[in-house]
Structures are given as structure tokens and as C-alpha cells.
Specification:
Helix 11 packs antiparallel against helix 12, helix 11 crosses helix 17 and helix 19 packs parallel to helix 20. A hairpin with a 2-residue loop joins strand 8 and strand 9. Strands 1, 2, 3, 4, 5, 6 and 7 form a seven-stranded mixed beta sheet that branches. Strands 13, 14, 15, 16, 17, 18 and 19 form a seven-stranded mixed beta sheet that branches. The longest helix has 47 residues. The chain is built from 21 helices and 24 strands. It folds into five domains: 152 residues, Beta-Lactamase (2-Layer Sandwich); 105 residues, Beta-Lactamase, CATH 3.30.450.20; 75 residues, Signal transduction histidine kinase, dimerisation/phosphotransfer (DHp) domain (Helix Hairpins, Orthogonal Bundle), CATH 1.10.287; 161 residues, Heat Shock Protein 90, CATH 3.30.565; 126 residues, Rossmann fold, CATH 3.40.50. With 673 residues, the protein is of the alpha+beta class.
């Protein structure tokens, strides 16, 4: 931009004389000591030592004068600069045409020109300079040259650019942050980012900034303290310590309360106290912490339940086993048989509850077999008690359902528990729907529980009942938790706990969706298997006359096993520990061992079998325990032991396992010979 800045040489000299007087401290009274004539003789002396760059050009834009500051900024000495054209000296060749046009306009209009340019130094550095260019004219008004006063603003510009860049970066981080960020002064919002608006459900930033901070918190926090009082306390801590981190509950625009983690940072600025606030929504974290806490509670309860159930199993043995033996010794029309049947029925129910305790403790045993979930679902539905007239139950079973691996009887128990739970929820009638489907989860999902990616056979049991409140839904898997009133038939509180435990044993997952007044849907995900389904025919009860040694630390269990085996024709001996069995067998070899797996405080079944093999390498054995089929069972079977039989023992199960093991070994030995 050209400006009217015409000055004669005389005017410029007078200005420079005045500047020299001020720099030299010469008063107006003593100005004769610095006369104009003196300055004319050395008109460049003042500019030569000025703290700013001064350059005088002739009409061809060649250097006529070059002061010391110019040497410092551009790196050329005066002798190197004199006579050189600006382009190629300190102006890049690439802008020659643009510079020539500006120069021509300046000379034609005999005025001044201000510009900000990027110039070059002798060593190739780039410097940013403000240029004030003024034409010099003689007394006749003819332009005779140009004086340029130049200010190097490189450092200032870089600082400004750095500040702008820093501000842009902060604003970008501020806006792009997934966390809510707010700036508060006193009791007023000053600024907030888009995440804050979205997190709190407001329409716009302006609407949120007009809201008072107190409107975003409930009256009280979860600990019962006033939100207002706690907020003031935490702000005081932030200003005294610099920052403060804590958990808080906030209220969305629609009234929803949700948990956040808050970081308050005090930022004093220009005499004011600002708070930089970062909110992070921790709803999902709280949900996962709840799941972990629930899992820990279940593990603890399961451990206790499993220990109790194991001891209870030993006491239950005679109640399950002896009715069958007594029945064999009584006439078919004996009046005692009806009482025996009731004892047997009660014992089975007790055994069923005990099995649920073992399942809860992840200690229940069941054979891992390939099964069809549709078959188990149908069996469970067929076994339901008659439904009330106002309750219906429908199924939607996928025809080509994939197979799963596990204990079909345990899964049957799971489905039965869910069906009973659904019926209980239908106080005034409604419907139950059971659905199976092949399902592939292509991402981690789940509302109540976490379902990883993978292939599953999915079972859905839905009802249109009363639904489950948020408060209760967090407790439904807790052992012994029940909502049934005392005037009704009280449940054991194990139903859903067992569902969860059995699913975990199968490597499966549980999820649910429920709403009060709208029913509940339980979703069970079983991993699929591509092994083939094998249907076994019912085995007949067959005995024998071989010798069997029962090794068990519980006297009652030894009696049960002895009576069952002798009833089948076997010759039976007993040992109360692994150590006593070792001593007894050295002098009294037996065809088969019935080996208890857990015999504290002595050696367990696996170690007992290992030591027996040292002197009887082909010893036959089956394993028995009320606990699940553990790694120790697998170790014993790897050594050569046969089937694993769960307690309480039944005549049929024990007979089948003993006979199958004896016959299998005989066949192998016959083949070897």
C-alpha cells in the first residue's frame, strides 16, 4: 500500500537532527551545539549507529548506505552490500517482478510504503521484517532516493505463531476430547466443549452455558451428603492443592443420573480464579466393577457351598443307595415299600438340592458329552408342572441347531430353573417363550453380562411378567437370594445362581434384558462343538465275582460302596486311606480299586494310584468323588485309571463303571496275548 509520505531532504534532515538531540540528551537551549549544518556534513552518522536497520537506496534500488544494524541482521558488511541490488541481496529472486512493481509505484508516487516481508540473510536464514520505505526528494521535489527503516520481528513473530499454534492445539484437543471439559469462574460456566453438550443431552453449547452448575448435580450424592456442600469442599481442595480428583454423580438434561470421574484443576489468571474441569463418564466402568464384585461374591459363596455339599454328599449316600438294596430283600407286596418309596423320593430331592450346591461351587460332576439343546429344552418343558389357565408357553426351536458339549442333565436343570423363574413372574398370567438359535457374536456385546465374539448356541427364555427392578437385578445371581414372600412356598434361592455357575462350567455366558412391568428375557450362550452326537443305549446292571478294594476316608461311604458291590456279587475289601491301601495291597492284590479322589489329610487318589502302579503296573481302578472332574482326575486317568463316578453313588452307575472297566482291561490283555 502506497501512502503520501513525501519529504524533502531538508525535512528528513531536520527530523534526524531532532532525533539525534533526543538520543544525545541535548536540550533545546543548547541545540546550537548540534547545528543543521553540522548534521548535513554527516547526515548518516545518526542512522549508522541506530538500534534499527537503516538502508538508503538509489533510484535503481541499489544500496547507497548500510548501517551497523543492517550488518547485524542480514550478515553483510557495508562494503559487501554497497552497490548491490536488493533482489539477490536480501530479497528472494522468486519475487523480483512483484518487488519491481512495488518499487516503480513508490518512485512514481513519491510517497511511502509499509510492508512485512520474509528476507534472506547472508548465511541463508530467513528473517521476518517490517519495512517502512520513504522517498527522498530535493528542493525542487524531484525524487533522489529511498530510505528504508527496517525492524526484525522474527522472534516476535515466532512467539506469536507459537502462541497461536498452541491455542489452536488446545482448542482442537478441547473440542475433540471424548471427555467433557468445562471452564468455570465462580458459579458460572465460561466455556465447554462439544462432548459436554452431548454427554449432558443439551441442544447447544449456549443452552448449557446459561445453566447454573448446581442444576447438573442431584440434591445428594450416593454417600448421602449434600452435593452443594461437597462441591464447595472439593473446589476449596482444588484451589489449595492445585487439583483434586474424585467421583461424582451428575444429572443429564432429561433427569437421568449417571456417574462420572472428575478432575478439578485450579487456574488463576489475571486476578481471577478459574476451574478447569474434566468429566469422564464411568457408567460402563461401574457396570464392570459390579460384575467383578458379583463374580467375587459368587466365588466365595460357591466355595463355601461346595465344601458343605461335599460333606453332605457323604451323609446322603445311604439315603440314596440303601432303598434299592432294602427293596431287593423285601417281598413285592410288603407294606414298608410305600415308606421306602417316600424315603427314596425325598433322598432324590435332597440330592438334587445338593447337586445345585455343588454346581454353585463349580464342583459338581457331569459327563462332558455332545448334546442337542433342542432335545434338552423339550424334555424340560415336558417335565414342567401343569400351567395355570392364564399362562401359555411357546417354543421356537431352530431345526438345524448346532451341537454343544457339556452335561445335558445340568443344562436341563438350568432350563428348568429358568422356566420356574418365568412362571413365578407371571402373577396375573401371561406368556413364556423359549427360543433356540445358532448365533454368531461378531463383537463383544451384552447388557447385563459380557458376551465375547464367537459362535454360540443361543437359548432365550422370555416372559411377559412383572420384570426385575434395577435394585434387585444386581442381586439375582447371589446364592440364596429370593424374592418369594414367606406366605408362599419359599425357594432355595439357588436357581439363577446355579444357572450362572453351570454356564461358566460350559464356557458359556449369561445376559438379560428386563424392565419393570414389561417382563424379562434371559439369554444363554453355549459354545458350539462340531463333534458328532452319539446315542448310547441303556446299560443293564451286571455284576461279577472279581475282588474289589474300596479306598475311601469316609466310613459311611465305605459301607455304601461295600454293600452295593457285594450285592452285585463282588468280593470286597476296604481301606480308610491311601497310605493304608498301599500297605494292604502289597500282600493282598485285588482286581479293581474303587478310589476316592479326596482323602485329607493324607495322600489323594491320584498319588495313591501312582504309588500302587510302582508295584502293580497294570492295576485296574475307577475313580469316585463328589467334586468335579478336576485336573487330578485327568492325571489319574492318564496313568491308566478308568471311569469317574460321581457321588452319591447309585447301584446302576457303580455297576456299569466297574463292569466296563474290568471288561475293557480283560479285552486289552486278551488282545495282547
Amino acid at each position: 500500500m502506497l501512502c503520501d509520505n513525501k519529504k524533502t531532504k531538508q525535512q528528513l534532515i531536520e527530523e534526524l537532527v531532532a532525533l539525534r538531540r533526543r538520543v544525545s540528551g541535548i536540550s533545546e537551549d543548547n541545540k546550537d551545539k548540534c547545528s543543521l549544518s553540522d548534521f548535513e556534513m554527516d547526515s548518516w552518522s545518526l542512522l549508522q549507529n541506530a538500534p534499527f536497520v537503516a538502508i538508503k537506496w538509489n533510484l535503481d534500488f541499489e544500496v547507497v548506505e548500510w548501517n551497523l544494524a543492517a550488518e547485524s541482521v542480514f550478515g553483510y558488511t557495508k562494503s559487501e552490500a554497497l552497490g548491490r541490488h536488493a533482489v539477490g541481496l536480501i530479497v528472494p529472486e522468486s519475487v523480483r517482478e512483484q518487488v519491481n512493481k512495488i518499487w516503480d509505484d513508490l518512485l512514481k508516487n513519491s510517497g511511502g510504503f509499509f510492508s512485512r516481508n520474509e528476507n534472506s540473510t547472508k548465511d541463508g536464514r530467513k528473517v521476518i521484517c517490517d519495512w517502512s520505505n520513504t522517498t527522498l526528494v530535493d528542493k525542487s521535489g524531484k525524487v533522489i532516493g529511498v530510505v528504508s527503516l527496517v525492524h526484525d520481528i522474527t522472534d516476535t513473530t515466532k512467539t506469536q505463531e507459537a502462541l497461536i499454534e498452541s491455542e489452536n492445539k488446545y482448542r482442537t484437543l478441547f473440542e475433540k476430547s471424548a471427555d467433557a471439559i468445562l471452564i468455570i469462574e465462580g458459579d458460572q460456566f465460561v466455556d465447554c466443549n462439544s462432548a459436554t453438550v452431548a454427554m449432558l443431552g443439551y441442544e447447544s453449547r449456549e443452552e448449557l452455558l446459561e445453566t447454573h452448575p448446581s442444576e447438573l448435580s442431584p440434591e445428594k450424592q450416593p454417600d448421602g451428603q449434600s452435593s452443594f456442600e461437597k462441591a464447595n469442599e472439593f473446589m476449596s481442595i482444588a484451589f489449595s492443592r492445585g487439583s483434586h480428583r474424585f467421583e461424582w454423580e451428575h444429572v443429564k438434561h432429561d433427569g437421568t443420573v449417571f456417574p462420572v470421574e472428575v478432575l478439578l484443576t485450579a487456574v488463576p489468571s489475571h486476578g481471577k480464579n478459574f476451574l478447569h474441569v474434566v468429566w469422564r463418564d464411568i457408567t460402563e466402568r461401574k457396570r464392570l466393577e459390579g460384575l467383578e464384585s458379583r463374580a467375587a461374591r459368587l466365588d466365595t459363596a460357591g466355595t463355601i457351598a461346595g465344601q458343605v455339599a461335599h460333606d453332605f454328599n457323604n451323609l446322603l449316600g445311604p439315603l440314596v443307595a440303601y432303598p434299592d438294596l432294602i427293596r431287593m430283600k423285601l417281598p413285592k407286596d410288603h407294606p414298608t415299600l410305600k415308606y421306602l418309596a417316600r424315603i427314596e423320593s425325598s433322598a432324590k430331592k435332597i440330592a438334587d438340592i445338593n447337586q445345585q450346591l455343588l454346581s454353585l461351587g463349580r464342583r459338581g460332576h457331569y459327563n462332558m458329552e455332545v448334546f442337542d439343546l433342542n432335545d434338552v429344552v423339550q424334555q424340560a418343558i415336558n417335565g414342567m408342572p401343569p400351567l395355570a389357565d392364564n399362562i401359555t408357553c411357546s417354543t421356537e426351536l431352530q431345526a438345524d441347531i448346532m451341537k454343544t458339549l457339556g452335561g445335558s442333565s445340568q443344562v436341563h436343570r438350568v432350563i428348568t430353573n429358568l422356566l420356574c423363574n418365568a412362571v413365578d413372574a407371571l402373577h396375573v398370567g401371561g406368556s413364556i417363550r423359549v427360543r433356540t438359535e445358532n448365533y454368531y457374536a461378531d463383537e463383544v456385546s451384552g447388557v447385563y453380562g459380557r458376551v465375547p465374539k464367537g459362535e454360540y448356541v443361543k437359548l432365550t427364555v422370555s416372559d411377559t411378567g412383572c420384570g426385575i427392578s434395577d435394585e434387585i437385578v444386581q442381586k439375582i445371581l447371589d446364592p440364596f437370594f429370593t424374592t418369594k414372600a414367606s406366605d408362599k412356598v419359599r425357594g432355595s434361592g439357588l436357581g439363577l445362581s446355579v444357572v450362572d455357575a453351570v454356564l461358566k462350567d460350559h464356557g458359556g455366558y449369561l445376559d438379560l434384558v428386563t424392565k419393570v412391568g414389561e417382563g424379562a428375557s434371559f439369554y444363554l450362550y453355549f459354545p458350539v462343538t462340531r463333534n458328532k452326537l452319539i446315542t448310547d443305549s441303556t446299560e443293564k446292571i451286571i455284576g461279577g465275582n472279581e475282588s474289589v478294594l474300596v479306598i475311601d476316608d469316609d466310613e459311611m461311604q465305605r459301607d455304601v460302596s461295600t454293600n452295593l458291590l457285594r450285592g452285585l456279587g463282588y468280593r470286597v475289601s476296604v481301606a480308610e486311606s491311601g497310605e493304608s491301601a498301599l500297605e494292604f495291597l502289597k500282600e493282598n492284590p485285588h482286581d479293581l480299586l474303587v478310589l476316592d479322589m479326596v482323602m485329607p489329610p493324607g495322600i489323594d487318589g491320584t498319588e495313591t494310584y501312582r504309588r500302587i502302579l510302582e508295584f502293580y503296573p497294570n492295576q485296574k481302578a475307577i475313580l469316585a468323588s463328589g467334586f468335579s472332574e478336576s485336573d487330578r482326575v485327568s492325571e489319574a486317568q492318564a496313568l491308566g485309571a478308568g471311569a469317574f463316578v460321581k457321588k452319591p453313588l447309585t447301584r446302576r452307575a457303580l455297576a456299569a463303571a466297574v463292569r466296563r472297566e474290568l471288561d475293557r482291561r480283560v479285552e486289552q490283555e486278551a488282545t495282547a496275548h
